[in-house]
Amino acid sequence: MKKIVTLLVFAVLISLSCIKDSSDKKQIESKYQSMEVPVFKINKENFTALPSLHFYHSVGGKPIEEETLVEMKYDKDFLEIKLECRNNPRIDQNYYTQDNTYLFHQEVFELFISNGERAKENYLEIQLNPNNALFLGKVTNKYKSDNSYALELIDIPASGVEHTVEKDTKNKIWKGYLKLPITLLQYPNKKAETVFRLNMFRIISNIDHTNKEWSANAENATFACWSSPNTAKPQFHAPEHFGYLILE
Q: Structural domain tally of the chain?
């Protein structure tokens, strides 16, 4: 009899736990449904794709013509990201090959992220270019006060980040893969979070370049964002416009 009672109590506790998990999930969903910035929910089972293939112009906020496929999933140790930058006819006109150089001067995929719900003045900047060069940095962006900006580079071999790139010049596509340690993403607060502030970007060249030292600007390139700040000039460093990444 005692054993039966114990089993019943255990079953009730499991049931209550499931109800709480379901309630928590519904609260999270309702909380972020009304947000003005986009929300991206991912899980541990399968890669989840962004619902749209079109990022938005940093200036004006309209959808860009080029397609960008982004898929993510996570586990207790890593956030995995698969990206596919389509409609990219100038893949071979990118000349940065060294890690932690200014990849954003040419074509690149970028990701800014900080842990927790609030938009912060400290966040990670992660870049991957078509040559599989990687950039990792910690940004201090005092946009709430004096607008000062500082960047601290992260030692890439010690970071634990894995990355690969595959180029398909015939079909004008380059594909990237990033495997980011969760411990790296616990920034700026060393806390285990299930909600992050996130934005993703893509710089796309619009003209041919004969000079290997070419640099992207508003006249020769498209500056695209997952969540556009809709600024007068191309601007990615706008934390209050970062969307939400939710680990379900």
A: 2
For residue 111, which of 132, 81, 74 has the smallest C-alpha distance?
81
Q: Answer yes or no: do 110 and 170 share one domain.
A: yes
Per residue in 145-167, pLDDT (tens digit) is 999 999 999 999 999 999 999 99
Q: What is the pTM of this model?
A: 0.86
Q: 123 with 189, same domain?
A: yes
Rounded to whole angstroms, how far apart are CA atoms 62 and 81?
25
Segment 96-151, tens digit of pLDDT: 999 999 999 999 999 999 999 999 999 999 999 999 999 999 999 999 999 999 99
Rounded Cα–Cα distance for residues 49 and 83 (Å): 10
Q: Domain check: are 213 and 158 in the same one?
A: yes
Element (H, E) at 161: none
CA 73-76-78 angle, to 5 degrees, is 55
| Full residue range of the structural domain in which residue 29 is found | 1-34
44 in the same domain as 30: no
> With contact defined as beta carbons under 8 Å apart, do 124 and 114 qualify?
yes
Is residue 10 scored above 80 in pLDDT? no
Domain with 202 in it: what CATH number?
Answer: 2.60.40.1190
Q: Which of 93, 79, 48, 86 is nearest to 65 (CA)?
A: 86
